[in-house]
Amino acid sequence: MDDHLNDQFEDEEEIEFEEIEAYCMTCREKTPIENPQAIWTRKGAPGTRGICSVCGTTVFRMGRTDAHAKLKRPDPVQIAEANSKVQADATYINYSVTDAEFAEILSEDLNRIGIPTWLSGMEVEDVQWATGVHPSLVECKNMVVVLSPLAIKATNVQEALDFFVKNRKPIVVAQLQETELPDSLRRKARFDFSGDDYKRQFRDLVRALTE
Fold it and tell me: What is the mean predicted confidence (pLDDT) over 4-28?
């Protein structure tokens, strides 16, 4: 094998076995993803889903990889007042853009066990509705607020939360970091995902959503 072909072979090997890392909520650090799978979220964004190579927890990382070139990008799910696509009894995942990776993991895990979710979006088309109230807020049965210091300052998080509070719809809290609780959340069921026991907190959160 000549040097040129040898170099090309080595490059292909590096691409094939290149590790992809994601932040593990259990290990509290970035770890290599085992069995990585390129996916497109329902918003049409690329991501990689797999399991943590250290503890086996489901992990997710936003962003495009070479593997996405082989996948057809789906059309993003849009909501329109005249033709809403929110599934009945869906859970609204309310989060700030800084907590998007955790929100995606939580959404995927809830969907997997049969609890449909709607991930709040930041796209322009998602915030242009005639009545001033996004149809997903009206149609979703309950809400999970992904709570962090930046989330309680995010306008989109607060507006969605205010709508649910005003309409007395069920709300639970998935807390990622220590932060002062807004008055509207002080008496809501709260599950601490800042520690290393994602599975237990997830199980308790599911119980609260299905009671």
Answer: 57
